């Protein structure tokens, strides 16, 4: 089932005037439910603008956009999108700017209460969301302003998870996080996708952090989608990454070099460090076995295989 | 939201008003302010309006922009009008229902007050529309010079005003961010009733004020990191030049003030 279907989607920011370049320029995109989707592109490619369309914060200027059962047609402003926003949770860029309550608990309960949960249900949702992002209940009574940057970011993500949305849309959630928290966060999102069947749409600049996890990769440039496909499709077209201005991860560069030297196909090569270690270990074992075997039979020594 | 906020924004256009010395414009605005406050009759206000319109038209900026600049204050203007209407009891009675007595005096004074306010706002917009922030700051610093003899620091004052003007769009951006976050979590200001909207504004205040303070703190550190020392003597790259046009501009305003005073 498609959760997002955009056709000739165009958007420009009104305050920039009609002569400013379009933020989204006739974009076509279809996204499937239950997947982990990574959206990549350099700054100014329209990633954030696209994400804010997913729960109707921004609405198309022209073209059409279908999200779940909701259809937006260019130029027609829609109101009363509460039920859409319950089902599609959006975590903005710089999540530290999106907390507005006095305590963490009230911030976490804000969404559930707005979406009609009772006080007790909301409190339970808040606790659950906080635990999902790996934080302690002790933080519930803290003020968001007295926490560390990483904690604030996790709480901002939890404030969206507490409403239990079907689709979680995140705008650069890993930026400015330390490497450990970054991996933790991606694994959390991956778990939500696999175990709870949520659709995850995540914007990032770093292909390496999502490369092993995402099912679908979307590359954007100048307000359009330049590539959409699976990991192996992406691996076979590294020029697409370069064109979109994305740094190619070292594992992928390594694979490209191995392919160049050995003539192996993309499909045979691993894509993350662990798998590479296994792959190399297996090759070494093969060589060792061959060597041992050859030593056993004197007459075969030095003969080509 | 930002699109609605027109105060404090420079509009590039090449007119003789744009080229005037910022000091001349600043002093002219003060003279105009005094004239508007002194004006009490219909003819005086009408004359000031014509005067303002002429100046605005020669700035090569569309009158619609000036009109839009007054938009944030419409609510206050409406409030002022209603206040005068309800509480000023001079003149003849117009409507007298259920203890509510609206008089001609109330309506006229209310209208005059709104008129004055509109004149002030749209005309002061000339200053910010035609003067770049840098020039404005420099002009303020010079105009504030007398403060020095009273023990104050003109640099400090002009810096303060310059930064506050610069911060207006930033603070609106910040509020916009929080409003988007609230809308995303099910509280869209568009869908709320009037009282609920009021409550939302309250939840907006705390994070916006906190972040404004945080930004101010960061700005101070950034300035000091680049060697800014408060009240250190400094020269400026741009020199202000007072020309014949500035003399003429001043003369025009002084004549206008005298006219209003001895009408």
UniProtKB/TrEMBL annotation, chain A:
The cross-references to Pfam families, in alphabetical order and at most eight, read: ABC_tran
Q: Which InterPro entries match?
A: AAA+_ATPase, ABC_transporter-like_ATP-bd, ABC_transporter-like_CS, ABC_transpr_CbiO/EcfA_su, ECF_ABC_transporter_ATP-bd, P-loop_NTPase
Presence of the UniProt keyword Cytoplasm in the record:
no
**GO terms for molecular function, please?**
ATP binding
Classify the protein's membrane topology as the record does.
Answer: Peripheral membrane protein
- Residue ranges annotated for the ABC transporter domain, each copy included: 4-247
The organism's place on the tree of life at top rank: Bacteria
SMART domains noted in UniProt: AAA
Listed A to Z, the keywords are:
ATP-binding, Cell membrane, Membrane, Nucleotide-binding, Translocase, Transport
Annotated localization: Cell membrane
Q: Which family does it belong to?
A: Belongs to the ABC transporter superfamily.
Q: What is the protein named?
A: ATP-binding cassette domain-containing protein
What is the native source organism of this protein?
Answer: Paenibacillus profundus
UniProtKB/TrEMBL annotation, chain B:
Q: Where in the cell is it found?
A: Membrane
Bilayer topology term = Multi-pass membrane protein
InterPro entries tied to this protein: ABC/ECF_trnsptr_transmembrane (IPR003339)
Query: Superkingdom, according to UniProt?
Result: Bacteria
Residue intervals passing through the bilayer: 26-57, 69-87, 94-112, 118-138, 240-262
| Keyword list, A-Z | Membrane, Transmembrane, Transmembrane helix
Xref: Pfam families = CbiQ (PF02361)
Q: Please verify whether the record's keywords include Transmembrane.
A: yes
RNA-binding in keyword set: no
**Name of the protein this chain belongs to:** Energy-coupling factor transporter transmembrane protein EcfT
Q: Which species?
A: Paenibacillus profundus
